[in-house]
Amino acid sequence: MKAAVFHAPGNITCDTIDDPVIQDASDIILKVTSTAICGSDLHMYSGGIPQLRPMVMGHEFMGIVQETGQNINHLKVGDRVVVPFPIACGGCYFCQHNLPTACEHSNPEHYGPEGGLITEKGGALFGYSDLYGGYNGGQAQYVRVPYAHFGPRKVADGLTDEQVLFLTDIFPTGYTGVMWGELKGGETVAVFGAGPVGSMSVKSAILHNAKKVIVIDTLQYRLDQIKRLTGCETILWEDAKEVIEQIRELTGGRGADLCIDAVGFEPDRSLLDKAKAVMNFEKGSIKVLEACMSAVRRGGTVSILGVYPTNYDNFKLGQVFDKGITLKSGQCNVHPIIDMLMDHVQSGRVQLDDIITHRLSLEDVSAGYEIFDKKQDGCVKVVLDPWK
Ligand code: NAD
Ligand code: ZN
Ligand code: ZN
After folding, report:
1. Which of 170, 168, 108 is nearest to 134 (CA)?
2. Does the model's ipTM exceed the 0.90 cut?
3. Which of 175, 226, 307, 380 to mutate to test the pocket of ligand 1 (most atoms within 8 A of CB)?
4. CATH code at position 208
5. Which residues does the UniProt record annotate as the domain Alcohol dehydrogenase-like N-terminal (predicted)?
6. What SS3 state is found at 223?
7. Does ligand 1 lie within 6 Å of residue 45's CB atom?
8. What digits encode the pLDDT tens for the residues 242-276?
9. Ligand number, closest to the Cα atom of 177
10. Residue 366 in contact with residue 57, Cβ under 8 Å?
């Protein structure tokens, strides 16, 4: 089959490799019909997440069931499904407590960048390095889906792939960032980052009846897109202080009720040790997170959706205490909310596919990564067709 294989930072190519096979009774093999490139994939692409052996990329994918393991009863060959990006067993303490990203069984060895043990047990993700379980991902013609009794969700016939593809990750992620703010309606939400995750946060804030949504980005073309799609207010980031002042002005001096960081840590990419695939995280910027802390009102919430490295610990806590800020963060627990979000899509309350700017063949995956990484050609979201 054809698959997008990670070889080294900056080197992801469409290769021909063996088809995946059922390895466990609760696996299915999925024939992938659509898959997307995520901002998280860029952390592997840039070397921010270390990976030394080749692996198939991709955690945002959907398709048609090709084969089922013996224990899979609720799915049959030919069913069309979307698959949440965390791999989770469904039965452990964390899965039973709506925290599938912390599944105790899917990633028994969770090793840190230098090979040291960071946590005893952490969850797994598709196509996202050995650190996250070493499972091949879905930027491929076929993918093995483990624990398929728990993850995949059937899709109604009337819905196109593009209408539901983002239920795998970015819509649940954006929605979670808003859910954490516990909005009652009428609030002001500031979303930092007008990429795919930020855009889904904006749509989710509107679903939660926010009165005002302010989006901040360094790229005017991305601000223009989300403003055209949703009517939100926008601020071009040139200087942190100015952004904070503008948010305060727009909120009667109080600050936003909820700030969402949909950008994350910005490493100094020149500090990548290519041989060991290790990034030095001591230098790098958390300026977006700091701006969120300054722009949020007293007693407000900051949701951290953008990724921060495990071994980064220079964060200043003073402002969190002084302002009584609630901080929420982490990989999105997709499984507990995906059915509710599918309902939002099916009822037409939200549209997800309007952020797609590039539709490419899987064969052009190298170009897809480059365009998305360098933010070229007006790129916001790339969707790949494995069969074109
Ligand atoms: P992206 O790279 O397309 O978007 C990031 C956006 O941030 C870009 O538009 C960029 O211009 C903007 N930006 C950069 N510096 C900025 C600044 N100083 N102020 C404002 N905006 C700035 O990626 P994405 O797909 O939207 O993902 C965003 C982040 O969310 C990534 O870190 C990704 O790994 C993470 N993510 C997390 C989860 C989760 O489960 N928590 C899921 C998916 C993605
Ligand atoms: Zn993703
Ligand atoms: Zn589990």
Report:
1. 108
2. yes
3. 307
4. 3.40.50.720
5. 26-149
6. helix
7. no
8. 999 999 999 999 999 999 999 999 888 788 787 77
9. 1
10. no
